Amino acid sequence: MADRFNKVLLLDGRGHLLGRLAAIVAKQVLLGHKVVVVRCEGINISGNFYRNKLKYLAFLRKRMNTNPSRGPYHFRAPSRIFWRTVRGMLPHKTKRGQAALERLKVFDGIPPPYDKRKRMVVPAASEAHSQGMLPHKTKRGQAALERLKVFDGIPPPYDKRKRMVVPAALKIVRLKPTRKPPWSRREKRRPSSATARKKVTKLAENHVDAKIAKYRVLSELFWPIKINTHL
Description:
The relative contact order is 0.14. The chain has two domains: about 1-165, CATH 3.90.1180.10; about 180-220, no CATH class. β1 (about 10), α2 (about 20-30) and β2 (about 35-40) form a beta-alpha-beta unit. The chain has helices at about 1-5, 20-30, 50-60, 80-90, 95-100, 180-190, 195-210, 215-220; strands at about 10, 35-40, 45, 105, 145, 160, 165. It has a three-stranded parallel sheet. A two-stranded antiparallel ribbon has the order 3-5. Strands 6-7 form a two-stranded antiparallel sheet. It is mainly α.
């Protein structure tokens, strides 16, 4: 009996429906099982992608007016979106619910050591085996969590250019802009100190003779006056 509850259920979230998988996972962690869900970026949401995106953007506007840091907190990573969905199906404000939530681990991609272990699927929550349950809009196309444009300003494992999750990039780093803003480029062209200004002036004086040579010839033809180039 003890071995049954010490066993970790490793689930592959790709191709499963968000609510159905969350309901099954919530029941298992309440029963005492430890559950690990990987590839949460591949979890699908039934219905139209555009309407799902509008719902999520409406959720992002929910905040406390006087102090938004108090919540609600809007998770943007697919793994945290799934974790929050499971939390809503648990009595997470009680000790029993908190203990159940601690038995759940969620990941984007497949980090080690789970990449070398056999993963399971849940047929009742998978779109390929759920035709006998309540109907959903499979014909209209489903929105995977990775399609929601909620990754603005957060680090990998999501790669915007490839539009996919990179499991190897698990280190949290800030996204830096590829191009610098125009004001920073403008400051580089301008000398930042008196020494640099003198250096630029001296360099210009050394090249001024070659620049005005043709104009000097014309001026000497009409006005035979010596031009002082070093003013």
